[in-house]
Amino acid sequence: MRQIPRLFVGPRLAPGARFELDPAQAHQLLAVLRLDTGAELRLLDDQTGEWAARIAAVTRRAVTVEVGAMIRGRETVADFWLVAAPIRPERFALMVEKATELGVGRIQPVLTSRTQHARQNPARLHAHMVEAAEQCGRTALPALAEPLALPALLAGWDQARTLLFADEEGGAPAATVMAAAPPPAAVLIGPEGGFAPEERAALLAHPAVRRLARGPRILRADTAAVAAIALWQALSGGER
Amino acid sequence: MRQIPRLFVGPRLAPGARFELDPAQAHQLLAVLRLDTGAELRLLDDQTGEWAARIAAVTRRAVTVEVGAMIRGRETVADFWLVAAPIRPERFALMVEKATELGVGRIQPVLTSRTQHARQNPARLHAHMVEAAEQCGRTALPALAEPLALPALLAGWDQARTLLFADEEGGAPAATVMAAAPPPAAVLIGPEGGFAPEERAALLAHPAVRRLARGPRILRADTAAVAAIALWQALSGGER
Questions:
Q1: Would you call B217 and A178 a contact, using CB atoms and an 8 Å cutoff?
Q2: pLDDT tens digits for range A162-212
Q3: Distant-in-sequence, close-in-space partners of B44: CB < 8 Å, separation ≥ 6
Q4: In this complex, is the C-beta atom of B36 within 8 Å of any C-beta atom belonging to chain A?
Q5: Chain A: nearest CA to B50, how far in angstroms?
Q6: Where are the extended beta strands (E) located within A141-239?
Q7: Residue A204: φ, ψ to 5°
């Protein structure tokens, strides 16, 4: 049995709406999946939810779709952000992909003094997020924010939003801190080289910051992000 | 500042021991890192711990090392296993890499009726584990077991070892189940297509199995493994 393709699209969806898919999606449906007029699709707009749809017309390289009935509304996403220093692009893409699967509301890149891979390709990251959401049955995408330097991030931080970070030099057990951090919250993942002393001091002095003990193992940043998000979801995500 | 290379080696380490590194490691030190006689190393044997060492002699392509003092003993690893159906090789390698970082005692591949990538390269997986352990400062490697079919795994399962699995059709919240699963324990991660009905029935009937609710999101298998291991470590790993 073949799965019905799920595609995130730009236009806001409504019953009976017709529009052309973008060229990359048209190529995927025609050349890779070998679909034709009449084929069933699922469309998502990250606004209203997931809709039944079909290919209404195929011209040279262009695919027009027609929207049918809504299947389900956009899922509720817990108000939890991933704030992360960019790392090597393939690892950062992995982090962003997994944060999308796990369901964060926003991904905020943060630039620190030891960040070595500040330049990332937002379009490529967005494509990874969309692919992860399409594959994993999600109906919502995280917002991907513009990078901010750490001082600016902290200066503009909403003090009602708990900012969790794993400290190398102490802190309460992760499970205890995570369980006491209801939404709105966020987790901060530093670069591979960690935070500079003055950055760590600024974090510890900030009223919204809660530190947790790093634990006995050094994790790669992408692993640390997945572990932290999973832990928060299980302990404070409030989904069951 | 350059990091001192950390290498897992085959021989059991002891002060004053001298031996040749394997050719791939010799190539890494000579051709990639451009090291020469006298260069400092850290050697690990996955048995005794981590040792200071240096390059004692270099001949054509061969590197002889001499072991100095022990730096630290092999870390304690919680008695927790990852039991996972093999998935696409690059994703399975990622899963194995992250399980190594997070610190599982054993990785047990399990073959289920919907497993599509039963053939994996154990040497390649082992190399991923070693690289992850070298990078993350670990002094222990998980044991990588031979694959077992699910019925054989369950038939031979030590009933004292809790086997956790995420069920699509119900179960208690993950945090509750994980917190009540002290070592010895294991988590079972199925293939992308999930378990067949008869497999699920066999799991639910097994006395060592505890199910937990899958949660509102479908995760890729490698993400699910990282989330489950991180959760168990934080709630039952007993490391602090």
A1: no
A2: 999 999 888 999 999 999 999 999 999 999 889 999 999 999 999 999 999
A3: B6, B7, B8, B9, B13, B50, B51, B133, B134, B139
A4: no
A5: 15
A6: 143-144, 148-149, 162-167, 185-189, 209-213
A7: -65, -25
pTM for the model:
0.91
Distance CA A112, CA A119 (A): 13
Whether residue A239 and residue B174 make contact (CB cut-off 8 A), yes or no, is no
Nearest Cα to Cα of residue A163 among A106, A222, A236, A80: A80
Instruction: Closest CB to A230: pick one of B103, B218, B230.
Output: B230
pLDDT digits (tens, 9 = 90+) for A10-37: 999 999 999 999 999 999 999 999 999 9
What does the DSSP 8-state code read for residue A74? P
Structural domains in chain B plus CATH codes: 6-73 (2.40.240.20), 80-236 (3.40.1280.10)
**B239 contacts chain A (CB < 8 A):** yes
- Candidates B187, B223, B232: best to mutate against A (most CBs of A within 10 A) is B223
On whether the CB atoms of residues A29 and A50 are closer than 8 A, the answer is no
In this structure, are residues A88 and A78 in contact, taking their beta carbons and an 8 Å threshold? no
